[in-house]
């Protein structure tokens, strides 16, 4: 079963055309999203049946009243978040020394952006004296990139890809799902089932982005990610 799963198919690009890969990704996206959304809805109904509204208690993504249908929100959901999250989770899946080096430089900065605040507030943070922190992280990432480029070879990375690409794909999708734990305003032990079923949805998307990234290229993963975020963007604008 797992051998046929989309995260166990890193070399479809060798036997399938680009269009065939796109169709496979879309088909899996539909199946995984419908399945995970259905599980989440069943969990939500179960909570509602006992008089608990977990959506209000957890405020996934924050209070909807704080999100306005602005160009800033549009740019955040459709451009900044997909690009930053793909850089964070899937850029090193190239298993190429120079690409991994670039990822090492960007990794501390992106993580800091998420920990300190939303990526859209990077400029605000920069002007609020956090520029010293970002500069330090940039230096740290640059040192790490130097070590990668000096002490590893392209041949080593090619060999590591053969051995570790499938586990790395699974790790990328799981980390992407877990990353969305940061979107919960409130969490408690009682709400764990709802929290788990909620992050299953981005995990499903992460499976597709990972597959597209490995078999089509980095920007294809970003494109699928952007399309995946369109329903959330529409929800904000409709509200």
How would you characterize this protein structure?
By secondary structure, the chain is mostly helical. It is built from 8 helices and no strands. It has helices spanning 18-49, 54-58, 71-90, 97-116, 122-151, 154-179, 192-216, 218-238. Helix 1 runs antiparallel to helix 7 (192-216), helix 3 crosses helix 4 and helix 4 (97-116) packs antiparallel against helix 5. The longest helix has 32 residues, at 18-49. The termini are far apart. The model has no long low-confidence stretch (mean pLDDT 87).
Shape assignment? globular
Largest sheet descriptor: none
Give the helix tally.
Answer: 8
Euclidean distance between termini CA atoms: 41 Å
Helix-strand sequence: HHHHHHHH
Q: Share of helix among residues?
A: over 70%
Number of strands: 0
Structural class by helix and strand composition: mainly alpha
């Amino acid at each position: 079963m797992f051998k046929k799963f989309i995260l166990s198919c890193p070399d479809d690009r060798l036997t399938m055309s680009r269009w065939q890969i796109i169709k496979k990704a879309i088909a899996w996206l539909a199946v995984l999203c419908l399945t995970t959304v259905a599980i989440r809805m069943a969990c939500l109904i179960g909570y509602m049946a006992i008089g608990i509204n977990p959506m209000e208690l957890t405020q996934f993504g924050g209070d909807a009243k704080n999100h306005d249908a602005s160009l800033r929100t549009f740019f955040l959901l459709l451009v900044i978040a997909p690009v930053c999250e793909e850089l964070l989770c899937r850029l090193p899946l190239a298993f190429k020394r120079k690409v991994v080096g670039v990822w090492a430089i960007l990794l501390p900065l992106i993580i800091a952006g998420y920990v300190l605040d939303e990526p859209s507030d990077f400029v605000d943070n920069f002007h609020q004296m956090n520029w010293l922190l970002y500069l330090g992280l940039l230096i740290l990432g640059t040192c790490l990139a130097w070590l990668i480029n000096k002490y590893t070879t392209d041949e080593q990375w090619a060999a590591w890809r053969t051995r570790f690409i499938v586990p790395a794909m699974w790790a990328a999708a799981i980390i992407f799902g877990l990353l969305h734990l940061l979107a919960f305003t409130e969490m408690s032990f009682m709400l764990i089932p709802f929290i788990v079923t909620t992050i299953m949805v981005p995990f499903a998307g992460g499976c597709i982005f990972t597959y597209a990234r490995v078999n089509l290229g980095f920007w294809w993963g970003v494109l699928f990610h952007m399309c995946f975020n369109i329903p959330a963007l529409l929800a904000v604008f409709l509200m």
